[in-house]
Amino acid sequence: MFKNKKTLILAAHPDDETIGCGGTISYLLENNCKVNVIFFTDGISSRTKNKVEKKKRSINLKKVTKLMNFKIQKHFNYQDNALDSVPLLNIVKKLEIEIKKFKPEIIFTHFYDDLNIDHKIVYRATMTACRPSPFSSVKKIFSYEVPSATDWSLSENFKPNFFIDINKFLKKKTAALEYYGSEMKNYSHPRNIKSIIMNNKLRGHHICRESAEAFKLERYILD
Fold it and tell me: I want to staple 109 with a disulfide (CB 3.0 to 4.6 A). Which of 35, 126, 174, 213 is the partner?
């Protein structure tokens, strides 16, 4: 299913790609997939305007990119936690341009009912930009979970129906999360490295594996 496929991961903030898909990125690359990531916001401007802190975030992202070996296709650098202030059509048009450039067959995006507004907007932009068309390259769309955004939503819980065994990639995912240390919270907050790995182990137990990442299959088009 995933061999030699162009795969695009959409992340509202730098760290979402690793929290939700870090092990899967390594799995895909091992299966000769080309993996590109698009980031939508700077991930920090809602908390601070400090240029030093912004630069640190950028440096850490470069370290994660090198470790995980994915390519950043585009970083739109919108204001953090403010995607709802941008006309959705503007975001969709920018995303459509990038999808046409890369021509991915598989896309991973945020869950539609996340608590975080940026996650919600990225999902909406994804589904609009990837609406079915005879000329679209996109055949599969998965949504991923981000603890403290997905599990804290009150209206509908994330109910995964697709799992990827990531046990052999768990150490690399942990190392990548450590570069995002400033984004991590104290244990037992869901967005803590130990908590995230525990969640991966729980997802693994759901399919009788040691650890896994869980997804919701949003669309699957068979030609």
Answer: 126
Would you state the torsion angle of the CA atoms of residues 35, 146, 207, 194, taken in this order, to the nearest 10 degrees? 100
Which 3 state secondary structure label does DSSP give 55?
A: helix
pLDDT (tens digit, 9 = 90+) per residue, 46-72? 777 777 778 888 899 999 999 999 999
pLDDT digits (tens, 9 = 90+) for 141-184: 999 999 999 999 876 789 999 999 999 999 999 999 999 998 99
Residue 156 neighbours by CB distance under 10 Å: 9
**Alpha carbons 182 and 44: distance in angstroms, whole number:** 10
Question: Which pTM was predicted?
Answer: 0.96
**What torsion, rounded to 10 degrees, do the Cα atoms 133, 137, 142, 143 define?**
-70
**CB burial of residue 124 (10 Å; 0-12, 13-18, 19+):** middle
